[in-house]
Specification:
By secondary structure, the chain is of the alpha+beta class. It folds into three domains: about 1-40; about 45-80, no CATH class; about 95-140. About 40% of the residues lie in helices and about 15% in strands. The chain is built from three helices and seven strands. The strands form three sheets. It has a three-stranded antiparallel sheet, with no helix packed on it. It has a two-stranded antiparallel ribbon with strand order 2-3. A two-stranded antiparallel sheet has the order 6-7. A hairpin with a 2-residue loop joins strand 6 and strand 7 (about 135-140).
Length: about 140
């Protein structure tokens, strides 16, 4: 304890040797970190994440972190500033036929799997279906 008191007296004697304008700078360097530390939330537990919402004026608020202990919230910065690059635009008619065929094959495979899982036997005549480009398509 006496060591701390002698250290403080030594610091006070050095303080008297410092010119006035440097005292202000020294005080700022001493006070600003203490103020910042006092304003920080010391919540050690998990924080809550508030979703993105629109406020009463219709302005969109980004997702925010929320501390239940101090009641403060701040932006979560989860949204990317760069927008995605759109590589394809429009409609390509040349791909429509193959896309329809693939969709039809997928539907038939899903139906066959569902029938197999249900334990039902597939009808041998496959009534109501006709072949198109190697796949099968429903009539009507």
């Amino acid at each position: 304890m006496t060591r701390l008191i002698s250290w403080l007296f030594g610091l006070a004697s050095l303080w008297s040797l410092v010119p006035g304008r440097f005292r202000i700078v020294g005080l700022l360097f001493a006070i600003v970190p203490v103020v910042i530390w006092a304003m920080q939330c010391r919540h050690r537990g998990p924080l809550g994440l508030l979703p993105s919402v629109t406020d009463a004026t219709g302005q969109r608020l980004p997702p925010r972190w929320y501390c239940d202990d101090c009641g403060r919230s701040w932006p979560a910065d989860l949204e990317h500033q760069q927008t995605p690059v759109q590589r394809f635009k429009g409609y390509d008619e040349s791909k429509a036929v193959s896309a329809a065929r693939r969709a039809n094959e997928l539907e038939m495979a899903q139906r066959a799997l569902a029938i197999r899982r249900a334990g039902l036997a597939a009808s041998p005549d496959r009534k109501g279906l006709r072949a198109i480009d190697g796949g099968q398509q429903r009539l009507g």
